[in-house]
Every structure is written in structure tokens, then in C-alpha cells.
Model the fold of this input.
Amino acid sequence: MKILLTGAGGQVGTDLLPLLLGRGDEVAAFDIAPRPAHCPDAVQWVQGDITQAPEVNDVVRAFQPDRIFHFAAILSAKGEQIPHRAWAVNMDGTRNVLEAARQFGVAQIFYTSTIAVFGDGLPDVVGDDVPLQPTTMYGLTKVAGELLGAWYQQTYGIDFRGVRFPGLINAGIPGGGTSDYALFMYVDGLRTGAYESFVEADSKIPFMYMPDALRAVLELSDAPRSALTRNIYNIAAISPTAEEIADAVRSRIPGVNLTFKSDPVRQAILDSWPEVLDDANARADWGWAHEFDLEKMSDDLLPKVKALIGSSEGGEPVPA
Ligand SMILES: NC(=O)c1ccc[n+]([C@@H]2O[C@H](COP(=O)([O-])OP(=O)(O)OC[C@H]3O[C@@H](n4cnc5c(N)ncnc54)[C@H](O)[C@@H]3O)[C@@H](O)[C@H]2O)c1
Done:
């Protein structure tokens, strides 16, 4: 299978590349960033700008992928700082990918949406079809991307499918996002023995451990179209409170001091997100089931964070 991965240099793409190679896919990467040092040799890296249709057309024409995994995006916090660039990357970029797929006969586009498509006033458990009324540039462009892809499927027969990721957790140093308090408890818990979360102890949002997120991408991409009843699926894993995450860390790092002091700005963003996702459609249609609960994730994550801190000697924050 030939797969073109846009945004391959990001948090998710970096972890997905070795999995694709491992199952025998031929992989090309398209990213505005230069080829990273850690990129496997087998990956064909094309540096380009997703907002420029000719650059997208060139890579799709030359590589002729069976599927495009479209990950390139400007995410939530940055999207509010550079909203017009976020519009260009998330909207024009997605249209360019869909247009290239139409012109050059790509069978499937896989889209990575987000829980940021939801807005205020949500029910306690949020299903696929609640009204989507996001208040961020990131959220609104992802809603439009979901709808545009469905239109390309309906109009041109391109197979368009994707997931709404919860906050993703992997072994990295957090870079300033609203859900970073979770990973910081592990990272600073190990690094300094203490961390003060910027949210209330009872704050609760959906999270997913990266290995589950990557498996969701591969499983939905491989599912027979006839089994799918929709284009975009909620996928859920865990929805721990901040206090429950702290307890998981405390039980693994004796003596760690984890406290809470809410920052009103970030608390307000967090409070507008869903607490719990309903992913019944994903479970029914393509057999989605998460593997990592809070305990299993903590067991797997801590040694990896420890190794990361060791390798970077306590390290400066890097974008997560
Ligand atoms: N990480 C999460 O917690 C999370 C949660 C929900 C949804 N998602 C979605 O998953 C996808 C991947 O997220 P991520 O965390 O890897 O994001 P990321 O910010 O780490 O990576 C995005 C990548 O897109 C590239 N990019 C940006 N502008 C570009 C342009 N003009 N042309 C080409 N490439 C460009 C960047 O260089 C970067 O490598 C995104 O679509 C995102 O919306 C992620």
C-alpha cells in the first residue's frame, strides 16, 4: 500500500511513520518542515506547503498514493495566535488535498479531526451528532473540513473517513497546550518531584494514549467501507479527573508533591470541552476498543518519560 502522510513531522505523524513501514507500506511524507534527523531512511520526505495547490498536486501526481493520511494542521492554541494562517492551512490545505485526490484518483483520504469541534453547552456524554458550535478557529476549520470531505465523497466518490481525537498523551515534554497538566504531572513529578496543575482537581476531559490513537487510525483506514455508517467517528479511551491522574502518579513516584491552582483562562477553555465522549458508532461499525486505561498508560509511560528526561538532561520544553 502506498501512503502519503501530510504533517508527518508532527506529534502523531512522527509516531505513525515507523508503524506504517513496519507493516510494509511504501510511505511518502509531506511537511513544511525539513526532514527530521529521526525520520527513517525508507520514508520519502517532500518538504512543501499544504496551502499551495501546485505543491500538493506535484507530490500526489509523482507518488500516486493509494491513501492520503491528512494530518497537517495548525492546532488550537497556535490557531488563536495566527488565525488567518490556521484558516489557510486547515481549510485551503484540506481542499488542496481533496482536489489532488480527485484529480489523481486517490482512493481514500483519512482525516484527523478533534474534540475541539464541539462547543459550549454540551451534554455530560457527547455523541457523534451533537450540534457542532466551536468557538476557536481550530475547531471551526475542523468542522468545515469534516463537511468538505463528506461532500467530496458524495460528489466525487472519494472514500473520506476519519476520527475525532481526544487529547493525546505520549512520552514527550509538553509544549504549552491546555491539556498539558496531565503529562506535566509525570514529567515534572520525575524531574523535580513536584508539579502544580493549572486546573481544578475535579477537571475532567477525554484523553487517549498515543499507541491507542495510532491503532485507531490504522484500524479505521483498513475497515471495509461497507461496514461504515458515517465519515467521522468519535473515539474514546479515558476521562480521568486531574486528581485521578495525580493519584496514578503518586502511587508510582513515592513522595511526589502534586497540587492544584486553577488558572482562569486555561480553566475556561478546558471547561468548554466535553468530559466524556460516546464512541458507540466506532465500536459498532469497525470494532474500536481502547487498550490503555489510566493505570496501564501510567505503567507504560513513566519509564519512557524517564528515558526521555535522561536523554535530554532535564531538557528544555519542546512542542508536544
Ligand atoms: N495531538 C493531539 O492531541 C491532537 C488532538 C486532536 C486532533 N489532532 C489532529 O491530529 C493531526 C496531527 O496532530 P499533531 O499533534 O501531530 O500536530 P503537530 O502540530 O504536532 O503537527 C502538525 C504538522 O503539520 C505541519 N504543517 C503545518 N503547516 C503546514 C503546511 N502549511 N504545510 C505542510 N505541513 C504543515 C507541521 O510542520 C507539523 O509537522 C492534526 O490534524 C490535529 O488537528 C491532534
